[in-house]
Design brief:
alpha+beta, eight-stranded antiparallel β-sheet, 6 helices, 11 strands
């Protein structure tokens, strides 16, 4: 079941949030502004910065080639706030939030498959924004492949292919590199869930991020 998300949308900005995330923001006035200020100091993968009990690490920068558009670079952050950890992605967050929720609904009855728990998505009128989800401290299936027996890996990989069939071709980036693997519970946890139409509609200003 999806965590309940409240949406607020206007011509200038759109966002959605879980009750848990809203509570945390209310308890920490200025948290989003602090995040934006601190991430401006992070340039290279591995860079870290902190203030008080908020710590942020730039752990990846992914490039995505979209037909008809320039290469889009997307920074990924791990954000620790007190004793909680979050994954934060610089992107048109409201789109990824909605696409993640839709995927979670469509995969709700698939055994051995989970979709990452989303907390927040924000986009301004230019499409710039953030997506926030739980931090999953697991290896991707792609990374776990090295220590999983090949026959077992093929079975898990087939599960990812079944997910791709259920979600359809619009979720073009569903792959083993975008799926964590929980060996203890034999469960894949999907992330980076975007429908291609959402990406193809990005404004030009987003291409430079």
């Amino acid at each position: 079941m999806n965590r309940p998300i409240t949406f607020r949308e206007s011509n200038n900005q759109s966002f959605g949030y879980s009750g848990e995330f809203k509570k945390m923001i209310h308890e920490r006035p200025g948290l989003i502004e602090l995040f934006q200020s601190l991430t401006n100091k992070l340039v290279n993968v591995g860079d870290e910065v902190s203030e008080g009990d908020v710590a942020i690490r730039l752990f990846d920068i992914r490039g995505l080639t979209i037909p008809g558009k320039d290469l889009k670079k997307t920074p990924y952050f791990k954000v620790n706030i007190g004793d909680k950890s979050f994954f934060v992605k610089s992107c048109p967050g409201i789109k990824e939030l909605k696409d993640t929720i839709k995927a979670k609904d469509n995969l709700a009855n698939v055994i051995g498959v989970k979709v990452v728990d989303a907390h927040y998505g924000f986009s301004d009128k230019n499409g710039t924004g953030y997506f926030v989800s739980e931090w999953v401290d697991l290896p991707t299936l792609e990374a776990a492949h090295k220590r999983i027996p090949e026959a077992q890996f093929k079975q898990i990989e087939a599960r990812v292919e079944a997910v791709k069939t259920i979600l359809g071709p619009a979720y073009f980036d569903t792959r083993i590199g975008n799926a964590f693997y929980d060996e203890k519970n034999d469960q894949i946890v999907l992330f980076d869930l975007n429908e291609s139409q959402s990406l193809l509609s990005l404004p030009n200003s987003e291409k430079e991020r």
